[in-house]
Amino acid sequence: MRKSHIASAAFSVIAILASACGGGDSPSAPAATPQSVTITSSSDRLFIGASETFSATATMSDGSTRSVTGTWGTDAPGVATVETATGRVTGVGSGMVTVFVDYQGRRGTKLIRGLPNYQGTWSGSYSVRSCSQSAQAALVDLCGATFSVNRVLPTNLNVTQDGDRVQGRFFLGTLGADASGPVQGDGRLLLTGVVNGDGLTIDTSWALDSQSAGRITGGFTLLVRFAGLNGDARVVADIRDLNRTSNLAPSLMDALQAPGSREDALRAIVRRR
Questions:
Q1: Total domains in the fold of the chain
Q2: Are residues 91 and 136 in the same domain?
């Protein structure tokens, strides 16, 4: 009987000690918390007028990763806006913008460049702002005939775009040439090209902008030289209307018009394609 009492007392002591230590159950593991958040998109560039839904992935304290939904925003709403609940980002202007998402005290960021989309086939016209001519080039009277001030003439662009680099072909009437150039940080496109027609050469410099999807503004200058004549003619023009007719650029192998004379070349400038 004494042994029974001793055993019972020992059991009671063990039970009290076990209870004081929290019992035999192991403590619960702490819940995993986010350590960092990463934003994913298809590119680090976004065209004006285009939209894309960005995604967010959190790396947790236990080493796992998971897709998360947080609260989205941008630091430059003039370049890109974002739906706070979905992460859908829309390009609205040119420049750099940081897209961010907040999730459980952690912020993920991604730097994006907003820029115009110049790719495609464009058709429209330009207006002559000024025209000057010097030396023997004045004998052709380009300013009084083809490029009289305020005259409206046709132009077209067929271009492709790879990031911030544009190349393709421009047309003055039916007279065309290859051109290429960069998209500047402010969204302007600077194109240069040389038209070589029978009896004349035209150096062209374009300064274009497209802050509204599907529409180009800006202008260009032409420096016209004639074979066998000294001097030149300089034309400054403003884009009157130039609208995208297709998002796809035609083949860049369009043949350069080959007029049979200087007069044919000048007539080609005023003709539409």
A1: 2
A2: no
pLDDT digits (tens, 9 = 90+) for 88-132: 999 999 999 999 999 999 999 999 999 999 999 999 999 999 999
Tell me phi and psi for residue 3, to 5 degrees.
Answer: -60, -40
Q: Which domain holds residue 104?
A: 34-115
Phi, psi (degrees; rounded to nearest 5) at 230: -85, 170
- CA distance linking residue 158 with residue 168, whole number of Å: 6
Residue 21 near residue 55, CB atoms below 8 Å? no
CA distance 185 to 200: 34
Domain boundary among 115, 136, 151: 115
Strand partners, 156: 123, 171
Instruction: Determine the 3-state secondary structure of 260 from DSSP.
Output: coil
Last residue of a domain, one of 96, 115, 134: 115
| Distance (Å, whole) CA 137 – CA 139 | 5
Helices (H) and strands (E) in the chain, counts: 2, 18
Which sign, positive or negative, has the C-alpha torsion 132, 136, 137, 143?
positive
d(CA 228, CA 238): 30
Q: How confident is the model at residue 1 (pLDDT cuts 50, 70, 90)?
A: very low
**How does residue 248 score in pLDDT terms, banded at 50, 70 and 90?**
confident
Does residue 133 carry a pLDDT above 70? Answer: yes
**Least confident segment among 74-78, 108-112, 170-174, 246-250:** 246-250
Instruction: Identify the bridge partners of residue 108 per DSSP, sorted by sequence position.
Output: 101
How far apart are the C-alpha atoms of 138 and 121, rounded to whole Å? Answer: 35
The residue count of the chain comes to 273
